[in-house]
Inverse folding.
């Protein structure tokens, strides 16, 4: 499908690496097109005979898209479907095909569903974008690095970055160039400064040409990029000829702003049992699919008029990570190069997974999927609220002073109104995703002062303190993810990390998994540990 007046992708072939430029089509895949010619008897392919596959039929019972995921009541009537072994007028999807070697593009029916969805929801800014299925964003990022990066390249990353993304390129001797972020995501001015001063800061070193970021519900910080920042970042990337890889697993989990329980209306906070979630003004029960789409911050893809954005979408957070299924949206040249690499590596995502998700989405329809997603968003919004409410219950939250960019500072319970309240940590209420990110202020603890007095450097004291504090949390049976896991690798060894900010450390808290009761026990235990360490 092309859109009148919409530009086509520009030539970005100079971004491809040597490996990708020299890759040729797999001869085995080339032969497939002839197999489907009418009258052809193929003695060529090594396809196993489907009559010998042991699976006769796949039956599934799935939630209806309008299911109220926040209700503890019995879910409304499920939808059932089956995938038979062989085609019939009522069944296009078959196990014979799903279990056979297939096209590296992925299922044509599923791709076409995704294309329609992407055109409607993301409205890409150029017309000849391609959809290519992959086995999840982890697989997809591997393929992006595989076509774009040379050994030793510098890659632009957020100053706290998703660890498995860098664990992929670190063994290639690549290095991260950390760009500062705050609660609204990557700071465009900081990106521009790095690129403008590159030749002075890194003389004779090849300029980075790839920016990796997680724009919504950032992992680990929970930050969500504003549209203004996305526009500014895109403009800078055009100016400096940077490819943007938007790894966006949390795109559909964009929340309304958090309102403290004490400031919600009677009706909102009121008498309902604590496990019944608060309904926000734009929760799905009041929204149709289009209003939900309108409530989402547009993607980089929608701003992209040149084809310089590689968008990674995954079903991991919307339909389950075990499906190992997602899709690229990118320009035709990159799609073709990724396809060539896919043919000789993963070949295609699991056929069973494709068949199952295809059947699910086609039985829901476009409208149904656009009912499912806001319902899911509401459910995670409630979880975000639980966590923020619980932090407010076990700590006092005070407004941040001017030198702290976070929304609030947490202090000891009962001390919020005292002048000398000592900051434990600051954080911002997440506007998307699954994580809250807390920044701890160590100088006011005597343990830290003692460690500083006996350590060779401040950084050493910070790291030692962080380890001891984390161990104490674990002893108390509450597990948080240490912020140091997300520190960019800036040297040629995996341990050569960006220097730590002095006197502060970070932890990531996930609100995606535990029940409200478990979350409460966890936050209470966390508060006990803070009290001990700050006493
Ligand atoms: C930023 C980011 N990228 C990628 C992934 C992995 O996605 P997938 O399951 O699609 O491989 C995650 C999962 O936590 C993530 O947070």
């Amino acid at each position: 499908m092309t859109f009148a007046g919409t530009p086509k992708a520009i030539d970005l072939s100079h971004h491809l690496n040597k490996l990708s430029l020299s890759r040729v089509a797999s001869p085995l895949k080339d032969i497939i097109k002839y197999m489907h010619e009418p009258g052809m008897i193929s003695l060529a392919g090594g396809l196993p005979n489907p009559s010998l596959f042991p699976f006769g039929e796949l039956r599934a019972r799935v939630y209806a898209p309008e299911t109220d995921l926040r209700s503890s009541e019995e879910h409304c009537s499920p939808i059932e479907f089956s995938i038979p072994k062989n085609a019939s007028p009522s069944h296009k999807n078959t196990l014979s095909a799903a279990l056979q070697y297939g096209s590296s593009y992925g299922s044509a029916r599923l791709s076409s569903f995704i294309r329609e969805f992407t055109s409607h929801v993301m409205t890409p800014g150029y017309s000849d974008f391609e959809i290519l299925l992959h086995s999840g964003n982890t697989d997809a990022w591997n393929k992006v690095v595989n076509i774009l990066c040379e050994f030793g390249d510098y890659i632009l990353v957020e100053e706290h970055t998703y660890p498995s993304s860098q664990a992929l390129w670190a063994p290639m001797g690549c290095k991260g160039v950390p760009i500062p972020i705050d609660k609204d995501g990557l700071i465009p001015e900081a990106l521009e400064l790095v690129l403008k001063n590159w030749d002075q800061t890194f003389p004779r070193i090849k300029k980075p040409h790839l920016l990796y970021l997680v724009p919504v519900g950032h992992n680990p910080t929970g930050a969500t990029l504003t549209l203004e920042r996305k526009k500014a970042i895109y403009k800078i990337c055009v100016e400096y000829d940077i490819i943007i890889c938007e790894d966006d697993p949390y795109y559909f989990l964009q929340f309304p702003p958090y309102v403290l329980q004490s400031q919600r209306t009677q009706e909102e906070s009121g008498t309902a049992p604590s496990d019944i979630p608060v309904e926000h003004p734009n929760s799905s029960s009041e929204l149709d699919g289009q209003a939900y789409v309108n409530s989402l911050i547009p993607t980089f893809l929608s701003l992209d008029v040149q084809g310089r954005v590689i968008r990674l979408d995954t079903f991991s957070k919307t339909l389950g990570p075990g499906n190992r299924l997602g899709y690229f949206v990118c320009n035709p040249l990159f799609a073709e190069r990724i396809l060539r690499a896919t043919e000789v590596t993963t070949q295609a995502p699991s056929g069973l997974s494709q068949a199952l998700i295809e059947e699910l989405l086609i039985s829901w329809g476009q409208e149904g999927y656009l009912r499912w997603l806001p319902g899911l968003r509401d459910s995670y919004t409630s979880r975000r609220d639980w966590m923020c409410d619980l932090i407010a219950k076990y700590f006092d939250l005070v407004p941040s002073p001017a030198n702290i960019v976070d929304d609030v500072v947490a202090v000891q319970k009962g001390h919020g109104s005292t002048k000398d309240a000592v900051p434990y940590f600051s954080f911002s209420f997440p506007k998307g995703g699954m994580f809250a990110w807390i920044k701890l202020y160590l100088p006011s603890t005597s343990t830290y002062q003692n460690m500083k007095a006996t350590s060779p450097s401040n950084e050493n004291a910070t790291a030692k303190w962080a380890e001891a504090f984390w161990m104490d949390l674990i002893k108390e049976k509450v597990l948080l993810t240490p912020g140091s896991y997300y520190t960019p690798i800036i040297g040629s060894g995996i341990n050569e990390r960006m220097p730590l900010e002095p006197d502060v450390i970070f932890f990531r808290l996930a609100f995606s998994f535990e029940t409200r009761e478990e979350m409460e026990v966890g936050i209470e235990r966390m508060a006990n540990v803070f009290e001990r360490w700050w006493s």
